Amino acid sequence: MIRLGEIQTLKTINKTPQGIYLNEPEPGPEEVADVLLPKKFVPEDLEEGQLIEVFVYRDSEDRMVATTRTPLIKMGEIAWLKVVDMTTRGAFLDWGLERDLFLPTKESTAPVKKGQKCLVGLYVDRTGRLCATMNLYRLLDHNAPYQLEEWVEGTIYDLKDGFGAFVAVDDRFSGLIREREITTPLTIGTTVKARVIEVREDGKLTLSLRDKAHKMIDGDATKLHEALIKAGGTLMLDDHSDPNEIKAILGMSKKAFKRAVGRLLRDGIIEKTERHTQLKKTDGAE
Question: Cα–Cα distance between 171 and 137 in angstroms, integer?
């Protein structure tokens, strides 16, 4: 069977002025139409009956054709491709072949524009054409080699309310950052570093943008300490302060602020007064 979107070895059947027709090296139970390798791609020493490795796709007239060029993406792969043209129906991407690859609007998880690069996969649409998709969930590998607590890098390819951010880890493996683990606004196409907090039975990864709790406390405590020093030793913040005010001043949640205060109190670095958090006065200080 001749496979659309893949590199395969085919047999030369018949030479013509337009090129040479190819087919399966060993005929299958069903008859398969010959595929044309255009003349400009035919090696000078290629004769009928010989084998040649080609990539099969559809030309501008939707005929199956072969090429000796290697495309930037093949079936089963994910790759970054550049948008070279836009229409009302979608975008056209450069994938290294004469006919650009079509990305239908319904297969875009975010708006795209000319000159932008998109992380996409390949699929065959209902008419039998190869098209690009930004919906990578079904295309990603579910056998990631990572373990719990490892840090990974990936690309955000979709955002869904109630679920979170879907990540193509290493632009290959399936990962999800649940909403409660998202600490900063994310956009589709951005690269993130995340910690593996679960390796599911199906091989998919659950991720977090947060460090381990004790490390986060240390980091938040350091941030609070530095903010107190910069403010002259006193901040008009305490357990009753508005969460938005804490976020604006310190860049952390109220829960993180309270944990940081607890750490600095235990270490004897700060003291709390009514409506204030301040550095503890050293002996002999006025």
Answer: 11
Domain 151-208 has CATH 3.40.50.300: no
Q: Which option is the CATH number for 213-279: 3.40.50.410, 3.40.50.1220, 3.50.50.60, 1.10.10.10?
A: 1.10.10.10
Are 137 and 158 a contacting pair, CB within 8 Å? yes
For range 145-153, the mean pLDDT: 92
Domain boundaries, the chain: 7-67, 78-133, 151-208, 213-279
pLDDT digits (tens, 9 = 90+) for 63-103: 899 999 999 999 999 999 999 999 999 999 999 998 999 99
Of residues 263, 253, 183, the one with CA closest to residue 225: 263
Confidence class of residue 273 from pLDDT cuts 50, 70 and 90?
A: confident
Query: pTM value?
Result: 0.71
Stretch 260-275: mean pLDDT, rounded? 82
Length of the chain: 286
Question: What are the residues whose beta carbons fall under 8 Å from the beta carbon of 107, sequence distance 6 or more?
Answer: 90, 123, 131, 132, 133, 134, 135
State the CATH architecture for 78-133: Beta Barrel (2.40)
161: Cα within 13 Å, side-chain hemisphere: 0
Distances (CA, A) of 109 to 18, 75, 156: 40, 20, 10
